[in-house]
Structures are given as structure tokens and as C-alpha cells.
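User: Please fill in residues for this 237-position structure.
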């Protein structure tokens, strides 16, 4: 795999931005894509530094795209940076220009952890026609928790905390949560009352941390319908 740290001037951000991208060494044709969104306090490099993501997708025909959006909760921050418009408009446009990505929506996926899990649910809900599947690892789905995890939360939500998240999109959904995660109660409430489809759910012993997300990421990659790389002797092992 090739790991690219792209730095470029984004037309929406009106500033330089850095996006981490993994692409196969051998490209057999149009690539699938996985937009992998980071959590609060991290950036796109967290997936490289804190998991074995590269090994998990080593035999897959997928471009993994990992942007950085600060502490924005994937919002267009009022009087701040338009990260939502960047994520959903200018970033995909740039990636489609740069990489040989598939034109089929079913070949594109979005996932994230914690704040990024919220971002993935939000994006798939807003643009379900863009994705073949969505994954949320330990997602924040009830913002009553905001003062505990982000004292400066009002910078992203100056009009007050958003309503609890619901998921009604017709896009297959993978959910994961650690059984000792402080978000476990709200996760159960979300799955029971605010998800209209039947998601694939992975749960195991674990907290709200990278040890659990490493395990959940492996499960997610196995669940996604990713295309394997072919060699002259067959599928790459």
C-alpha cells in the first residue's frame, strides 16, 4: 500500500488542508473508497498511528481517505471554518479528480469513531445516494454528553446542543460499541428507538478507546463489501 499525506489548498476552506490517503500498490481498475472520519482530539493521521489499518486493507482495491476537521463535529462552524461543506462537497470532488475512483455509489463507504461516528451517520443521512454502506464506532448520538467531553462545545453549536441523532437512511449500517464505554447507555437507546433499519452490531468488552476501535475496525473492514486485489496467480493473499 501507498500512504499519502496530501497537503493542498481547498477551495471551500480557503486554506491549506492535510488529508491522509491509502491506495493499493497495484490498481486493477476503478477504486472503491472509504472515508474514515476521526474523533474529537484527533486528526486523520490517528488511523495510521493508532491502528493497523494499512494491514487490514492491504489486499483491497480501496482508497481510504482520512480528512482533518479539528473539533468541529463535522459542522460548518458559525463564524468559523465550513468543515461540513468541505467534507461533503469539495473533498469528494478533489478526490475524484486525483484518484481513479469508481463512479458507482455502491462502491463508496463512510465510517468514523466517536465524533467521527456521528459525522459518518450525519453524512450518510444527508446524502444516502452517495454511499453503499456506513459504519459508526462508538458514535456520539445524544449531545447531553457534550459538556463532559468538550467544555468548548458551544464553538461548534452556538445555538445549543443538537437533538439526539436518528438514522433513517436506506444505507446498510455497521455499529460498534465497547461494553464498558461511557456511551453504552445512549448507544442502546439509539439502536432501540432511533434506528429504523436493522444494523450489523458488534460489541465486546472494551472502553471508549483505541484498543476497542482497533478491534471494531477489523470487524468493519471484514463486513464492508471490499474488492480484493488480483495477481497473475489469483487473488492476493
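Assistant: Residues filled in for all 237 positions:
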Amino acid at each position: 500500500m501507498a500512504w499519502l499525506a496530501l497537503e493542498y489548498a481547498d477551495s471551500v476552506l480557503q486554506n491549506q488542508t492535510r488529508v491522509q490517503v491509502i491506495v493499493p500498490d497495484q490498481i486493477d481498475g476503478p477504486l472503491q473508497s472509504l472515508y474514515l472520519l476521526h474523533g474529537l482530539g484527533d486528526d486523520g493521521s490517528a488511523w495510521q498511528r493508532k491502528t493497523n489499518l494499512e494491514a487490514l486493507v492491504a489486499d483491497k482495491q480501496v482508497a481510504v481517505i482520512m480528512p482533518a476537521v479539528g473539533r468541529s463535529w463535522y459542522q460548518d462552524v458559525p463564524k468559523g471554518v465550513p468543515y461540513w461543506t468541505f467534507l461533503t462537497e469539495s473533498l469528494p470532488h478533489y478526490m475524484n479528480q486525483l484518484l481513479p475512483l469508481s463512479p458507482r455509489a455502491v462502491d463508496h463507504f463512510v465510517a468514523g469513531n466517536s465524533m467521527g461516528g456521528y459525522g459518518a451517520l450525519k453524512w450518510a443521512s444527508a446524502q444516502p445516494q452517495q454511499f453503499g454502506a456506513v459504519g459508526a464506532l462508538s458514535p456520539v448520538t445524544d449531545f447531553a454528553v457534550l459538556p463532559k467531553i468538550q467544555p468548548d462545545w458551544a464553538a461548534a453549536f452556538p445555538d445549543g446542543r443538537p437533538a439526539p441523532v436518528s438514522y433513517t437512511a436506506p444505507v446498510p449500517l455497521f455499529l460498534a460499541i465497547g461494553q464498558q464505554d461511557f456511551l453504552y447507555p445512549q448507544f442502546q437507546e439509539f439502536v432501540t428507538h432511533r434506528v429504523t433499519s436493522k444494523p450489523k452490531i458488534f460489541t465486546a468488552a472494551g472502553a471508549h478507546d483505541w484498543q476497542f476501535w482497533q478491534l471494531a475496525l477489523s470487524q468493519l473492514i471484514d463486513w464492508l463489501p471490499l474488492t480484493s486485489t488480483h495477481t497473475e496467480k489469483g487473488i492476493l493473499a
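For context: The beta strands are 2-10, 15-23, 32-37, 62-66, 108-113, 133-137, 173-178, 200-204, 230-231, 234-235.
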